[in-house]
Amino acid sequence: MRALFVGCGAMAAAWAEAVHKNDLLVGRVKIVALVDANLAAAQAFATAHGLTDAQIFTDIDDALANVETDMVFDVTPPEVRANIVRKSLKAGRHVLSEKPMAANMDEARELAILAQESRRLFTVTQNRRYKPGVRRIGAFLDSGVLGDITGIHADFFIGARFGGFRDQMDHVLLLDMAIHHFDAARFMSGQDAARVFCAETNPQGSWYAHGASAFATFEMSGGSFFTYRGSWCAEGERTSWDAAWRITGTKGNLIWDGEDKLDAYIADGDETFLRDFKRVDVPELSSDYQTQDHASVLAAFLDAIASGDRAETDSVDNLHSMAMVFGAIQSAQTGKQINITQDF
To answer: What GO molecular function annotation could you give as one example from this UniProt entry (predicted)?
Structure first.
């Protein structure tokens, strides 16, 4: 299938590497055109990734009108997302975009509806749910070994200096990073968020313009609670990019450092003051098809085009993750608990 690649910045490199080098994708996609407002950036990207035959444009309208493609890969900043996705869907292309899927909930709903009306796929790159740890945890919780899930807790503390558009974003942590963790919490627990209370800060010493840190408590649809503590200006010892997790159930708990250390424990023996517990295995997955990050997202998107079904991270599903983000933002702005189910 033929792809038009929009946005040739640093994030786009991971997509191009996956397309050209990952076994899930080799031979399935040909990038035939590039679009970037910065012509030099597009030319440099083409050279770096061996796309010497790709046509290069600075305007998406010209690219859509002059190059035959099946899909658009949108790797642009959030503020231009709606324009890129809207034009691509109306031109009859399937779209796989970076997250967030839109700059606000109204745009997100509009684009999801437009995709359905256009009979084209609009899928979002929630690549962190395609990590081995997240997949293993999701399957393990679904098995019922921990009983009913009562609490999901995530900590994310990294002092990341990106430069560029993120430095000036409002709600930078919630909108650009926390959505990954919110989406992972939904996937692992199998629950959507019903209510949220959130406090958002920009701590002393932050190099971001706004909202580099946030603390949120979500009441989930299954009755559990998801707590989130995060900062993008936390110096010193760091958590994993995938956060550090503790998940509690009626029979035990699971602890994941976001990397390779993943342990689960269940209660064992008599109900004494401090009950004994034992370690239980969290089984490895039988296949790595859904654990290869960007490559697995891209493969799922291509599979969905071929089958006519929606991909797992289709825009309709992603509205639930977006609602968590914008519910948290509204709570932080108003100081009130927000009813996500009712208001979003």
So the answer is: nucleotide binding
Per-residue pLDDT tens digits for 116-130: 999 999 999 999 999
Q: Phi, psi (5° rounding) for residue 227? A: -110, 145
Q: Which residue has the tokens 């919110």?
A: 182
**What span, in angstroms and rounded, lies between the C-alpha atoms of 26 and 7?**
21
pLDDT at position 304, please?
98
Cβ neighbours for 54, distance < 8 A, ≥ 6 positions apart: 5, 31, 32, 33, 34, 46
Burial 305-329 (b: 16+ CB within 10 A, else e): beeeebbbbbbebbbbbbbbbbbbb
Q: Are 323 and 342 in contact (CB under 8 A)?
A: no
Q: How would residue 337 be classed by pLDDT, with cut points 50, 70 and 90? A: very high
**Residue 271 pLDDT level (bands cut at 50, 70, 90):** confident
What is the fold, at CATH topology level, of the domain defined by 2-124?
A: Rossmann fold (3.40.50)
- How many Å is the Cα radius of gyration of the chain? 21
Return the amino acid letter for 285.
Answer: L
Q: Give residue-wise pLDDT tens across range 320-335.
A: 999 999 999 999 999 9
Paired strand residues for 244:
155
- From-to residues of CATH 3.40.50.720 in the chain: 2-124
Please tell me the predicted confidence (pLDDT) of residue 274: 86
**Beta-strand relationship, 193-201 and 338-339:** antiparallel
Beta pairing class for 55-57 and 71-74: unpaired
Residue with tokens 């009108």, as numbered in its chain: 65
Angstrom distance (rounded) from CA 123 to CA 125: 7
Q: Which of 225, 261, 258 is CA-nearest to residue 156?
A: 258
**Domain boundaries 128-290+322-343, CATH class:** alpha beta
Tell the residue number behind the tokens 């690649």, with chain if given. 5
**What's CA 152's distance to the chain center, in Å?**
18
Q: List CB contacts of 81: < 8 A, sequence separation 6 or more.
A: 74, 97, 98, 100, 101, 102, 103, 107
What pLDDT band is residue 212 in, cutting at 50, 70 and 90?
very high
The 3-state DSSP class for residue 92 equals coil
Q: Are strands 71-74 and 2-6 parallel, antiparallel or unpaired?
A: parallel
